[in-house]
Structure formats: C-alpha cells, structure tokens
Amino acid sequence: MILCCGESLIDMIPSDHVMAFKPLAGGAVLNTAIGIGRQSVDVGLVSGVSTDLFGDFLVKTLQDSAVDVSYLIRSDRPTTLAFVTLASGHASYAFYDENTAGRMVLPDDMPQELSNEIDALFFGGISLAVEPCADAYVAFLDKNKASRLVMVDANIRRSFINDEPRYRARMAKVFANCDILKISDEDLQWISPTNQPRDKKALEILNQGPELLCLTLGAKGVEVYDKNGLRFFCPAPRTTVADTIGAGDAFNAGLLVSIKRLHALSTSAVLALSQNDLETAVRFATAFASDTTTRQGSDPAWNFKSSKI
Description:
- The protein is α/β, with parallel strands linked by helices.
- The chain has one domain: UDP-N-acetylmuramoyl-L-alanine:D-glutamate ligase (3-Layer(aba) Sandwich).
- 33% of the residues lie in helices and 24% in strands.
- The protein contains nine helices and 14 strands.
- The strands form three sheets. It has an eight-stranded mixed sheet. A four-stranded mixed sheet has the order 3-2-7-8. Strands 5-6 form a two-stranded parallel sheet.
- Helix 4 (164-176) links the parallel strand 10 (149-153) and strand 11 (180-184).
- The protein is globular and about 50 Å long.
C-alpha cells in the first residue's frame, strides 16, 4: 500500500453565476491519493478531516475512489476551504485555513503503528507549511521512513510561509529524508533564487538527500535528475486544457503507480530501475497529468491508459 500524508480540503470552483462556487474535493495530498486509488493500486490517506458536512463529503469522495480512510484523523473543527480563481485555465487560490481540522493535527494524533503492508509514503502540499500540522507530518516521516520509499512534492505556497527560515529548515529536513522529490521550476527558483542554471540548482537539492528529482516545467514537460545530473527530458503531450487544477498531483499519483507496477517501491529498487523503465514511468505520469487538465477541477481518470506511452 501507498500511504499519502497531508492535507485534504474543499476547492471552491467558480461557477457560471456571479459569486457562486461549486465545492469539489481538493488538496494536493488528497488529490494524489485519489489518483492512485483510481488506478486500482492500494492507497490510504493520513489527514485531519472534519466531522462537518464538508468532511463527510471528503470521506465519501475518498471511499468512492477506493482510498482507505481508516487512517483519517476526524475532529469537529471546520474544513479548510480554498477559493479558486481561474485565469486562462491556470488556478490561483485563497485559503481559509485557521483552526481547521487539517491544520490543527498534532504529533500525538498521527497513527502510532503502520502495517508492514505499507511500502511507500507520500508527503507534500500546504501541510508541510503550516503549524502545528507541519511538525506532526515531519515527525511522522522521520519515525516511519525506514525501509519505505518516500516521495515528496514540495508544492510551495508562498502565502502560507510566515517564518521563512523556519520553513526552509523544515523542508531541508524533509528533503534529507525522501527518495523522490517532485518540484516545479517556480518552486526551484524560490528555493534557490540565484542566476545559476537550473541543473546546478537541481543538483544542490539532490545533494541534500533525494535520489531522484522530477523538475516539472508546466506545459513543456519534466526533467528528471539523479545525483550525476540530468538523466532525461520527458515532453508533455499536447492537449486542450480546461484548467490545471490537480495536474501536479496527478503526476505524483502516476509516478507512484508506475513504480508500484514495476515492483520498485523501495529505495534500492528505484535506484536499480533501468533507464527505459524509469522513462516509461515518467511518461505515464506526464500523460496522466496532461489528461487531468482536460477536465474541470482535479478529476483523474480511472484505470488510465495512454497511446502516447
């Protein structure tokens, strides 16, 4: 099983009516879990989820997408809401997150024991930026990383960063404890705001701990690096974009699904992947992400297959 650890929330998507919004399940980590579940791969979610009507909606959405909800941390605090603004298909967000069920998760709330059936852990999103939940997830990662593959999506949301030195220190610890890191070109520039070429910046991060780095370049595609430098570039398939909500999350899901199907859910197995197998996995993830952009909101396909792989 792959266990995704982090935020779940409600994306309020603009409708055709003035100041009207449609609520959809969202959050980078929830979206990733749903993408995995819809590919018939065992997946669970660790997340703080409210007992309010939005929380019940999130639980039902997860169950409908074959995600194990037994690791959810339920409370009567409200659900995080993210109001979405779309401009040319690209999304920006205004978050309402104070004192919510997701944000107020504490280290003692986290699962105390994990089944040996859990092969891989995924972390990311705003849950690594806001306290107290960020400290809870980092402690959970530190406790459970041994013998499990760890993937992280940096997914930096600048509006959540109130103490930049503290956040940078936390992310450095996360990078040191992960095997696969996905990061966007914008996030890379924030982490390393210098004029160095991006391959130099990527290697600086890899030297902090990750074995593989997937650098997403928006509609262009993905560059994949290891500690020796750039391994290959995977272009993104051309598609008609409805919006970009959940595209990066679908990439995360697709990559983990592919690695699972290659029987490589361990650090040593990932390092042993042939160039052809790794490229196949990244092509699947990229195609899966591109397909997700053809539908409104984060709505990954079920049992996705692509003729472009």
